[in-house]
Amino acid sequence: MIRLPVVAVVGRPNVGKSTLINRICQSSELVVQEKPGSTRDRKYMVADWRGRLFQLVDTGGLDLRSGEKLHQDVVRQATLAMEEADLILFLVDGKEGLLPSDLEVASALRKVTKLVFLVVNKIDNPEDHCSHMEFYSLGFGDPIAISALHGIGVGDLLDGVVKYLPVKEGELKVDLSIAIVGRPNVGKSSLLNRILGQERVIVSNLPGTTRDAIDTVVKMDDLMVQFVDTAGIRTKKSGYDDVDYYSVIRTYRSLERGQIALVIIDGSTEISRKDVTIGWEALKRGCSIIFVLNKWDKLAEGERLAMNEAATEKLADLAFAPVVRVSAKTAMGLNKLLKTIFQIFQERSKKISTKKLNEFLREIAQKAQTAGFSALKLKYMSQIKTDPPTFILFLKNVSKASEPFRRFVINNLRARFGFSAAPIRLILREAE
Question: Which residues form the EngA-type G domain (predicted)?
């Protein structure tokens, strides 16, 4: 059995350990395990960042001065977690500052010969560089400032974590995960087989999370790419609208595991409402979308023109998502599809500096006034995560921010920074 790398999160009580772990794991397909014993035992959660799987160990708050048995048990469990860990996140509270109990935890950590990241939580203003300076005295190098509540800095923290995690024997490092979804008989498996037929360096066939899914990992352009296939959303013969519940669940789980969703459509038939729904479900789960019109070789010139018009009309609400025409049978369009996949992969990893984002904010402030959003005062913006790109915008009167305003900001982000196909997540917060 593969042993995943272990990351322990330790610190005194109430510094935000659980909030950080929930932030890291909220978009992952979690495997939660409590080791045998009381509720004070440490909890293990499987997290996924940029294709690297690792275990997060949730320990209780360390109060080394307490003689109560409850606290002694917590200390014992935290000590075991630190000894087991490959890397330790030492969490402190940037709002409360350096306390004697932080010094005691630091003293205990110096006895453990493990890599320690000093993480200063509750730094809600990304431009506040002074409030965490006192933590340098703990002796664990440069503090990493984050806000677990708002997600600020968490992506950068995880980039550092996976960089230093050891690769265990038998562990497979996946760079990109692609979910292949769509209705039955649209050519999903045929397209996957065609791709794998060209990219013959197949690394592994991994059992998927469902009974009928096989995840295939293949090396493409020096990237380990995982393809997650599904059986498709079926409609029962007993009724046109009676959708097979389990096929829906399988498809949605695949989307949760994917970074890019290839929504396969039979180009020789009509684009259905179900095809569009799958696209929206992929977007909600943070996937980039590529609509793939398969069986293009079957269409005559006039039929292709009609299908292009239908795609423009029926996929209008997801117009930012590219549409690629292919034939799994003849390999027509396959190179363009692969090129589009790698282009989107680069977009998802794009990081925009806070300086550039605040310049952008000043540029669109006047546009916002003329577009009818004069009640909103835009203050500052930061990118808190990549893959998918996630931004936090602080503004006055956030309660008056409408969905059209959110789309206004996202569309301008796309145009300004070239996020043509990656989904953009925007978090709005009230500025102090």
Answer: 5-169, 176-349
Pairing verdict, β 223-229 and 176-182: parallel
Asked if 106 and 251 sit in the same domain, the reply is no
- b/e string for 156-171 if b means 16 or more Cβ within 10 A? bbbeebbeebeeeeee
Q: Is residue 1 part of a domain?
A: no
Whether 195 and 337 share a structural domain: yes
Binding-site residue ranges for GTP: 11-18, 58-62, 121-124, 182-189, 229-233, 294-297
- As a dihedral over the C-alpha atoms of residue 155, residue 159, residue 160, residue 162, rounded to 10 degrees, the angle is 130
In a domain, 97, yes or no: yes
- Could you tell me the two tokens for 115? 């890599």
For 123-133, the pLDDT digits (tens) are: 987 666 566 77
Q: What is the pLDDT of residues 326-342, one digit of tens each?
A: 999 999 999 999 999 99
pLDDT, position 203: 37
Mean pLDDT of the chain: 81
Query: Does 206 lie in the same domain as 90?
Result: no
Six-digit token pair at 402?
């409408």
Are 106 and 229 in a shared domain? no
Euclidean distance between CA atoms 90 and 277, whole angstroms: 43
State which of 323, 348, 373 marks the end of a domain.
Answer: 348
- The annotated binding site is made up of 11-18, 58-62, 121-124, 182-189, 229-233, 294-297
Clarify whether residues 301 and 370 are in a common domain: no
Three-point CA angle 422, 340, 188, nearest 5°: 95
Q: Note whether 214 and 131 are same-domain residues.
A: no
CATH number assigned to the domain comprising residue 426:
3.30.300.20
pLDDT band at 72 (very low <50, low <70, confident <90, very high): low
- The reply to whether 169 falls in a domain is no
CATH label of the domain that carries residue 116: 3.40.50.300
Q: Is residue 75's pLDDT more than 80?
A: no
User: Range with the lowest mean pLDDT among 229-233, 235-239, 368-372?
Assistant: 235-239
CA distance 18 to 336: 44
- Identify the domain containing residue 81 by its residue range: 6-164
pLDDT score of 156 more than 70: yes
What is the C-alpha to C-alpha distance for residues 63 and 99, in angstroms, rounded to an integer? 12
Question: How many structural domains are present in the chain?
Answer: 3
Predicted pLDDT at 125:
78
DSSP label of 186: S
Sign of CA dihedral 176, 24, 286, 368: negative
pTM score of the predicted model: 0.58
